[in-house]
Amino acid sequence: MQPILFPIICGVLAIVFGLVTRQWILGLSAGTQKMQDIANAIKEGASAYMNRQYKTIAITAVILTIILYALFASLKGTQYALYVSGAFLLGAFLSGLAGYVGMFVSVNANVRTAEAAQKGMNAAMDVAFKGGAVTGLLVVGLALLGVAGFYYIAPSPELFPSIVGLAFGSSLISVFARLGGGIFTKAADVGADLVGKVEAGIPEDDPRNPAVIADNVGDNVGDCAGMAADLFETYAVTTIAAMFLGNLLFNHDPNAIMYPLMLGGLSIVASIIGTFFVKVGADNNPMKGLYKGLYATIFLVAVMVVAMTYQFFPTGFSFTNAEGVVTAISQTGLIGTAMVGIVVTMAMVWITDYYTSTEFSPVRKVAAASESGHATNIIAGIAVGMKSTAAPVVVISIGMLAAYFLGGLYGISIAAVSMLSMAGIVVALDAFGPITDNAGGIAEMAHMDEKVRAVTDPLDAVGNTTKAVTKGYAIGSAGLAAIVLFSSYIQDLSAAAAEKGNTFLASMSNLNALFSLGDPYIIVGLFVGGLIPYIFGAMAMEAVGAAAGEVVHEVRRQFKENKGIMDGTSKPDYAACVDIVTRSALRQMMVPALLPVLVPVVMWAIGAYLIPNAASSYAAIKMIGGVLVGSIVTGLFVGISMTSGGGAWDNAKKYIEDGHFGGKGSPAHQAAVTGDTVGDPYKDTAGPAINPVIKILNIVALLLVPLLV
């Protein structure tokens, strides 16, 4: 069997397993007619939003496809242009499909989880986790199948670099899905909380709240569809970056290109097996039950990687370039760097869990600060978010140095791929969160027995932590992946220069000398790159605030004009709130989503046309390089602080609702609701969307390389 067929078969296996599990979920009871009516309203709202979102994105994708084809047809010929534009469309389609599937599974699993909760914790958790597992395995299956399949049809040295188009397509859809879904979900959530819980004093998920359906729809289009597209992109881009770097460093050695794909295939097998280990133990702790599956997957990946490397890569691989520089990685180096990625993954999970779980002091300190008022809650939450960046950055830095020591730049890429190899099981943990959240909402709106909420509420609290863990994992892996992409940018500049006869840039020593911190072009690039995550985050937060304001006005209007809503004699107009956040999210996602696409292009234009003597100073190359590094550094800090801080705020509120510091309705609870409202767009909109932003910057830079040399 050809080696390339192994990852393709594993990708198909993941998809088949996901579809079979989906059929099992659909075969379960969906509960009473009232439960089904609520679930159908959520499903209709989610489907309507996703359809409108993808129609909007499709227009942008078609325009970019035409631009890519025209650009590369003039630079590298029509055949290459067809491959790169076709790869772009493939990446965009598969990323969009992953998001759509994630949403569809979630809206069908939520009501079945609520129904299963009547049988107890284990039954509800089984349905919710398997619903998440469908999303997780389809994400990694589609990603690996797309990447391996494209390499199968374009393995030649001339056409292989066009695979960057696939990375660009998946990243573009990811940032749109992440941002648009994030604006939708948090605008609905914030609007529902501000008027429902704070002003009207009604419980969360109360059917009298006109924004409650929009809130539940948002859980699916943001946390499920958005995260699915996000992790699809992270998985695909990291794998492509490792293959691309291996291709450049080892002179198109098939082994260096295949190793990341083999690692991805093994991880799918391990993730499928790992799903069977998820069980709640005698202590009735759902978090421990979920982590059993994660740890089983990690152990299996580690064992399989060692066996695979010994069997198929006994000597590693090496290459000596024209300057006599040897690039090599041994069998021990391959195994060691893969283990580094696994250790970094476990560390990121533990660290994020520590800062966002109700079991540990950071969340409890935020809850305690709520007794002093709203301001002290906000201060404590911001402090936790800022402190939460330290340990992940230290772990990533140590991991990067260890991987570099073991295998150079290629070793860092393998560590990143190894880290992403757990994406299937990690996405399952993430999708578990919105499914249990929706299940609790359906139970509340359908007036189910209190024992159901006694099951769904702790599952929802655990889901908040797993969502935060997934976001921390995604941003941490994005940091490693972005370093690999930046290294690919440097290597690709050298290769393109050699192809065009530019002997100065073809020399890696000359290229490395260009990127000097004493050069003003580099400093300008660093400043601009460092600015992007802040500007992007601000635009995302403002978008949520504006959309939430529209929801607040609509909910207030309905309460004022329809007095029967509060006494239960008439129904709210749920569709009005769904329509408001749909229109607002789609309108406001366009500019920030296109920001990372346009910045490298603008920097190229400035360097090429506006700076005197740019040809001799290589201003564009330097400024773009600075942009890439600057965005990686600040993006990592901003992303981690937002996601962990927002998670801490959310679970501090839930900790108080469990009876601590006065419980529900107390002054501390009111302060915690304010903190949670601020933290929502932090952790579910701006923070996680920074992940694809920093990778899009790097991918666009790779696409611009032919224009830079």
Please describe what this structure looks like:
The protein is an all-alpha fold. 84% of the residues lie in helices and 1% in strands. It is built from 23 helices and two strands. Helix 11 packs parallel to helix 23, helix 17 (520-561) runs antiparallel to helix 19 and helix 20 (590-610) runs parallel beside helix 23. The longest helix has 51 residues, at 450-500. The protein starts with a helix and ends with a helix. The model has no long low-confidence stretch (mean pLDDT 86).
Features:
23 helices, mainly alpha, 709 residues, two-stranded antiparallel sheet
Order of secondary-structure elements: HHHHHHHHEEHHHHHHHHHHHHHHH
Number of helices: 23
Helix content: over 70%
* Biggest sheet character: 2 strands, antiparallel
Terminal CA distance reads 40 Å
Number of strands: 2
How many whole angstroms does the radius of gyration measure? Answer: 25 Å
Tell me the fraction of residues in β-strands, as a range: under 5%
